[in-house]
Amino acid sequence: MPAASVPVLSPDEQEAALRAWFRARGRVLIGFSGGVDSAYLAVIARQTLGRDQMLAVLGRSASVAAGQWETARAVAAAHDVPLREVDTDELANASYVENPTNRCYFCKQTLWTHLVPIANALGYATIVDGTNADDLADHRPGRRAADEQGVETPLAALGFTKALIRERSRVHGIETWDRPSSPCLASRIPYGTAVTIERLAQVERAEAALRALGVAGDLRVRHHDDLARIELAREQLATWCSPDGLRALTSALRAVGYAEVALDLQGFRSGSLNVLGGVVAA
Q1: 24-63 pLDDT, tens per residue?
Q2: Bridge partners for 222 per DSSP
Q3: pTM value?
Q4: How many angstroms separate the Cα of 172 from the Cα of each of 44, 65, 93, 187, 241?
Q5: SS3 (DSSP) at 182
Q6: Residue 203 banded pLDDT, cuts 50, 70, 90
Q7: Strand partners, 31
Q8: Rounded CA separation 42/22 (Å)
Q9: What angle (nearest 5°) sits at the alpha carbon of residue 236, between those of residues 234 and 238?
Q10: Which bin fits 151, alpha (ψ -120 to 50), beta or left (φ > 0)?
């Protein structure tokens, strides 16, 4: 017998399915970072359920750049999303600080240990995060920590890719629709190198310095002790590979404490430290 065909939904139909998903759950608490995925999820939940039936909770720590907090607050304010902030001190978790290849598990374990009691105390039966369908094919040890706490992933479950989330965000006027992805600062530190406040702060200062120079698009400053390895969006490489561009990059990163600076000519690759650490194949 021929295989049953799988219906292909239009973007409008997928979003309608997401709204129906929220309505079926009632009161929902969202793990909120202010990134592309969680911003879209929070805005759709707010539009669908109303202000009293949903809550976005932002975890604050040294691993999150100050600019990310500001973006999260701005999105919540612009779209009338109720927001609560909570300090999550993952640096108090020795397993996280050691920075093993499953570091993200310990980060998310700490996050949900803070958020689940809030949900229980306030009567939010459903907790969700912004995991999307593309994330399911990536190295995501933090997913196990979320699963252990019963955190649901409607965007992934309903087949929302990052591209679709960006497009629907654009339609709804959500400011993050074209923002580069910005995972936690610890993702710039190679596995096995301890995560410290000093290293996180240096990475944050380094990326802010390059943005101030005019670097656009995807950007990572990978921290290799005294060496900063810069990954730029490939369309940016030609601009910054010029002698003047290289001098500017080098000067900016030496000013924040790096002795050596390297521009990675392969350009930006999400998860490149997973390859370096042998977690995934090149």
Answers
A1: 998 999 999 999 999 999 999 999 999 999 999 999 999 9
A2: 229
A3: 0.90
A4: 9, 26, 39, 30, 37
A5: coil
A6: very high
A7: 57
A8: 11
A9: 95
A10: beta
